[in-house]
Specification:
It is built from 7 helices and 2 strands; from the N terminus they run H-H-H-E-E-H-H-H-H. The protein is mainly α. It has one domain: Winged helix-like DNA-binding domain superfamily/Winged helix DNA-binding domain (Arc Repressor Mutant, subunit A). The N and C termini lie far apart (45 Å).
Length: 154
Amino acid sequence: MQLTRFSDLGMRTLMYLSMHEADRTLPVTIAEIASQFEIPHNHLVKVVNKLGKLGWITAIRGRNGGLRLATPPEALKLGQVLRGLEGNTELISCEAPPCTLRGRCLLKGALNAGLEAFFTKMDEYTLADVCAKRTGEALITLHRQFLSQQALRH
């Protein structure tokens, strides 16, 4: 199984936002995240829109606007996030194209059980867990570098 690029970007966005809640007066902008992860701005807008609809981030409009986490990182379980971003994912479809074994095959059930086991295992980890230690330090360094570059431009 491979996660979609959409889910990957959603996770990175949440991770980046989680490291800037305590030490930041202004919200993080989409432009900042897009620049940091070299993500196309328009694609990130779609990801951020979905994260907002799921209630995990808040978007603030206006001159000093941007993004903030709406849920504490300790409360966001990775399985929950991945389910929300991936949607109702099935690893195979017996419908299109129609499979001649449909209704008599156990493969789809086995794969669905494996997928659910994956999500259940991911629920053992929170956003805070995956942003700890070296990852958190790397995210903070990225943010500080961005602020330094911004200061040089102004």
